[in-house]
Amino acid sequence: MLRVTIQGITLYTGPAYEAVAIAESFLEENMLHVIGTITAKTMAAARRDETVKRHLEQMDLAVFGETGMLRAADADTPSLLQEVKSQLFFHTFLESLEKNNRNLYLLSDDREKLERLKAWLDEAFPQLQRIGEYVLEEQVGEADLIVNEINGAAPDLVLSVIDSPAAEHFFTEQSRKLGIRLWYEIGDFEKMYKKIHQSPSFFRRFALK
Q1: What is the 3-state secondary structure (H, E, C) of 158-199?
Q2: 60 near 175, Cβ under 8 Å?
Q3: How many other C-beta atoms can be found within 10 angstroms of the C-beta atom of residue 153?
């Protein structure tokens, strides 16, 4: 694990395969862990919003979503730069989840974004089990209803594509009620989706045709 600091915020990260092993270990523990994708947008939100800053500081594992974040952390080695460019952690971790018959719950703030994510997952990881989904913009009633649905589904992890700072605020307000082991925030999936299509040929099999 690497301990890095960006804008006064300490984050714990590491090479993709090491980080995947750590993420897998989180699924074996009876406590809630958080993995989050760090981008310039995330850090900008942290400068303006104390809740976002605290959330980042308390994160168990940070995954850099942009090479600029590696440079900001003074960790821009050639190997790590290539891993971030190709979204290696994201792909490898989802492969692991599929291989080990794990299941996930999808949480989004936008229906169109969720449908795009589902279409991509169907193509890239057809055996990965999805046991529930929720779109915040379609929420009726209190947020407790969402938490109850998640806990009732009992997923191995929640995959969140809620944008910052809404993602950090939702988690901060609801985390104590969540009966899950892993919360993985990938944040801006639309931006990640575009990068997938620009990735090297080794990763082309992950992209939508």
Answers
A1: EEEECCCCHHHHHHHHHHHHCCCCEEEECCCHHHHHHHHHCC
A2: no
A3: 17
Q: Give the orientation angle of helix 88-99 with respect to helix 78-85, to 10 degrees.
A: 60
Tell me the pLDDT tens digit for each residue of 105-135: 999 999 998 999 999 999 999 999 999 999 9
Total domain count, the chain: 1
Are 206 and 196 contacting, i.e. CB atoms less than 8 angstroms apart? yes
Domain that holds residue 131: 2-206
Q: CB-based burial of residue 36 (10 Å sphere; 0-12 exposed, 13-18 middle, 19+ buried)?
A: buried
User: Which amino acid, one-letter code, is at 146?
Assistant: I
**Taking the mean position of all CA atoms in its chain, how far away is CA 183?**
7
Please report, for the domain that includes residue 45, its CATH number: 3.40.50
Other residues' Cβ atoms within 10 Å of the Cβ of residue 126: 8
Percent of the chain with pLDDT over 90: 80
Q: Minimal CA–CA distance to 161: which of 97, 101, 98, 116?
A: 116
Report the 10 Å Cβ neighbour count for 40.
12
DSSP 142: -
Instruction: Read off the DSSP letter of residue 48.
Output: H
43 bridge partner residues: none
Asked whether the beta carbons of 30 and 156 are under 8 A apart, the reply is: no
| Polymer length of the chain | 209
